[in-house]
Specification:
By secondary structure, the protein is an all-alpha fold. It has helices at 3-27, 34-54, 69-90, 96-103, 106-117, 124-141, 156-174, 176-179, 184-199, 210-214, 217-245, 247-252, 256-269, 275-295. It has 14 helices and no strands. α4 (96-103) runs antiparallel to α13 (256-269) and α5 packs across α6 (124-141).
Length: 296
């Protein structure tokens, strides 16, 4: 298997891990402890990434440079702190299958930022994919009542998940310059470490829930899963993809999240997909496929 083929395979597997995030977030929502769960997840992720670095996995770790601090802080803020806190908070209000489909808009956001802000040239086919995808996302977050979007049809959970999606889109794009200088493993580890530190001051908001979480074996198991597979491996594989394939192509693999998410939330939570969810999801995936084809 070539290294490029391995990257594509990793980018197929990673969305299956990420599709579990809203499901586990839903299962843990009764604790009302988004900061504590995000912090626990990334303490685990940081520990495993440190082991990967010192076990000879990936490229050799370069020496730490002070000029990287600002960039790593921004990546930690967007990809670790904001993305995950907003996701855990949104999970208290939003069904997991809808949340997964909303997160599928990340690749569309990446493309829009590239085109509108960074002035990246793109094909009309890709623009059609962006429009189609956002129509699908609108159907999902409004349960089919798109015209009511300005009349309070969108709940706080949907807004939080859209914010989480935007944070990850920024994480995807802002990491590219740093990946030109150092390895994806280095960038993933230090941005995760910085983002984890940013979460620490906010954990006191969840102090009342900590004693119950401490003795909940299922909560610890989910934190371990999210830390190792979802964060450490998932984040590393994603940045390996950005480094090799570019941000738009890599983000387009998130079109697999709705597929995994709807199936898994049905199996684990019994959330039967609504007609609006299926229609919106089909449009999101169709838009992403158009974008993928345009990039070839």
């Amino acid at each position: 298997m070539t290294s490029r083929t391995a990257i594509h395979l990793k980018l197929v597997i990673a969305p299956a891990f990420w599709a579990m995030s809203p499901i586990f977030g839903r299962m843990l929502a009764d604790y009302h402890a988004p900061y504590a769960f995000a912090l626990g997840r990334f303490i685990v992720a940081s520990a495993f990434l440190w082991l990967f670095m010192h076990a000879g996995r990936g490229a050799p770790v370069p020496s730490f440079r002070l000029r990287h601090v600002g960039r790593l802080a921004i990546l930690g803020l967007t990809g670790v702190c904001l993305h995950n806190v907003l996701m855990f908070m949104g999970a208290e209000y939003t069904p997991a299958n809808r949340a997964t489909l909303i997160l599928a808009s990340i690749s569309l956001m990446v493309a829009l930022i590239d085109i509108v802000i960074l002035r990246r040239r793109t094909r009309p086919q890709a623009l059609a994919g962006i429009v189609l995808g956002f129509v699908g996302t609108a159907l999902v977050i409004t349960e089919g009542h798109v015209l009511e979007v300005f009349q309070g049809a969108v709940g706080r959970g949907e807004i939080m998940f859209l914010g989480a999606a935007l944070a990850w889109a920024l994480y995807s794009i802002l990491g590219r310059p740093l990946l030109d200088e150092v390895s994806p493993l280095y960038v993933t580890y230090y941005s995760t470490l910085v983002g984890t530190a940013m979460l620490v001051p906010f954990v006191w908001h969840d102090a009342a829930a900590l004693p119950a979480i401490a003795v909940d074996v299922h909560a610890w198991a989910m934190i371990g899963f999210l830390g190792l597979l979802n964060s450490a491996l998932g984040f590393l594989w994603y940045y390996q993809g950005v480094n090799e394939l570019g941000a738009i192509t890599t983000a387009a693999y998130l079109n697999l999240m709705p597929v995994f998410g709807v199936v898994l939330s049905w199996l684990f939570l019994g959330e039967v997909p609504s007609e609006a969810l299926l229609a919106g999801g089909a449009l999101v995936i169709g838009g992403l496929l158009l974008m993928n084809k345009a990039e070839k």
